[in-house]
Structure formats: structure tokens, C-alpha cells
Amino acid sequence: MSSADQFSQQLSGSAAKRISTKDDGSLDVLGSVGGVRGIVEAALPATVFLATYLIADELAVAIGVAVAIGALFTVVRLAQRGPLVQSFSGLAGVLICAGFAHFSGEARGFYVPGFFVNAGYIIALSVSVAVKWPVMGILFGVIRGQGFDWRRDRIQRRRYALATWIITAVLASRLIVQVPLYFAENETALGVTRVVMGVPLYAFALWLGWMITRDRQQSTSP
Asked: Structure pTM?
């Protein structure tokens, strides 16, 4: 194995740990997105920010409440001796969004960082398919114990490329829907679509990608 392959193996192994499987080897969709707790932690700060802003009509108050929610989640994770990176990553994301809202002086600024994150992932996923190393193949290959053997199977490689395009399409759809709402200054619709098109839509795309890349024997078994 080349040094590049070893690096890819280590990188994909670390990322694959975030994707959970059940005892029968099938994908645990809820576990892969952090369970109910992960969904709540991902959606609640943005939801509370929007609700507070609409009720109080005070940007500073909405920012303070969102940051407080993010800080609370961090304290709980630290108290439970969770990994430092995982414990602080959510709070860091909230602080970045809050910073954009504060310095722009507009509630819609809270959602701007998400645009850049989605755009970055779209580029990375697209490049991975172009160079014939689709990201979903790397992740699912590690989970399924295939390593990189799937790259020698043209059909399987195409399926992993399609799965990667599905995730890419979800990210692109967020920008297609949300960016016009941002420029239309429709904070309410922007906040709602941010939540609806967040973890739930990603979880569905992840499940769909897993299903279409199953082994032929798994696909035909009852």
C-alpha cells in the first residue's frame, strides 16, 4: 500500500467512525447523525435564535440565547467526559454564526457561515468524484470492510460516485433555496428552511446512498 493509500485509509477510518451500523450490518441512520441528541444539538440553537428574534425583535437577545444554548450543550458534554473536539465544535459553530449576525447587524447574517460550509463540501465532494475517489466510497468501503477494493469494480465505483452526488445534491439544494431567501431578506423562511433542510434531509440522503451501494447479494436477499 502506498503512503497516499495509507493516509486515505487513516483519514477515512476516522471519518467512518461517525457513521453507525446496526448488528446486522445495515446502516443506523439515526446513530449516524448523532441520535436524537445530535439532531437537537444541531437544530436547536438556530431554531431558538429565530424564535427569539421574531418574538423579542432584538438581535442581541437572539444571539445571546443561541450562544447560551450552545454553551449549555458544551458543558453537558464536558461533564459527561465527552471528547474535547466534539464538545466544543458545536459551540464554535454557534459562535461563528453569532459573530456574523452581530457584525452584519442583521439576523440573516446568522446563516451566512452555512453557505460557505456547504459550498466547501460541494467542491470537495465533486473533486473526489472527478478523481475517481468518491467520498462515500471511501467511507462506506471502510465500514463494510472493503478497504479500497471497490475501486477495481467499475459498477461499484459508479454506485459510490452516485451516492456522493446524492449528498452533493442535498448540499446544493440548500444553497439554491436559501441563498435567494437571504438576498430577499426573508429571515423567517431562511431560518425554517435551514432547520428542515439540515440533519433530516442529510440523513435521508445518507440512507439512500447506503442502499444503492449495497452488494448485489445484499440487494437481492429478503
From this structure: 0.82
